[in-house]
Amino acid sequence: MQRLGAHLVFLDESGFLLIPTRRRTWGPEGHPTILRYNYKHDRLWAIAALSVSALRKRMGLYMRFQQDNFTALDVANFLGLLLGHLRGEVLLLWDNRRINRGPAVRQLQAAFPRLHLECFPGYAPELNPVECIWADLDGRLAKSLLRGREELRNRLHASKRRLSRTQQKLRSFVLASELPSPPW
């Protein structure tokens, strides 16, 4: 039930390890590429929301990183901050994870009747454009020697700033998902 003039928001959570993502690369024949890394299983958890304004078709990217896994309270706090940035009705599409159904989220929804929550069908990451954002960030971190969480956080923030500046790139994430084509 999309409302006229509502912001359409896609939301997802993910984690980023210090161990780099392996990607295909070029190298001289017979000389395999050596990828050095710290064998630390430290990670940062991320939550991101990609918004589309109904009237101007303007895209927005909102992200938060933290050391611990997200709880329903963390998700509710993130949504509260997001609602502070977006005016009018907000239609939020996300997966049906337990933390997205917690009491803190239900209380927030009761406090903000302009927030409308809808779930994607069971396990359908191909429908969520935020999955494309995670793939882009993973690509930026691939084959990187990260020395600690702070360096990982700095690289993720830099990538987020880069993405936020480009409406065309944000729009490409929506177009790359398997959602029906938007009218723009």
Per-chain topology:
Elements: E1 7-17, E2 43-52, E3 59-66, H1 72-85, E4 90-94, H2 103-111, E5 115-119, H3 130-141, H4 149-164, H5 167-176
Parallel strand pairs: 1-4, 4-5
Antiparallel strand pairs: 1-2, 2-3
Helix pairs in contact: 1-2, 3-5
Question: What can you see in these coordinates?
Answer:
The chain has five helices and five strands. The chain has a single domain, classed as Nucleotidyltransferase, domain 5. Helix 1 runs parallel beside helix 2. It has a five-stranded mixed β-sheet, with helices on both faces. It has 184 residues and is α/β, with parallel strands linked by helices. It is 33% helix and 21% strand. The protein is globular. The model has no long low-confidence stretch (mean pLDDT 88). A hairpin with a 6-residue loop joins strand 2 and strand 3.
Strand order of the largest sheet: 3-2-1-4-5
Which regions have little confidence, pLDDT < 50, spanning 5+ residues?
Answer: none
Number of helices: 5
CATH architecture: 2-Layer Sandwich
What's the alpha carbon Rg, rounded to whole Å?
18 Å
Oligomer: single chain
Order of helices and strands: EEEHEHEHHH
The number of distinct structural domains comes to 1
Shape by Cα distribution? globular
CATH hierarchy class name = Alpha Beta
Relative helix content: 25-40%
The CATH homologous superfamily: Ribonuclease H-like superfamily/Ribonuclease H
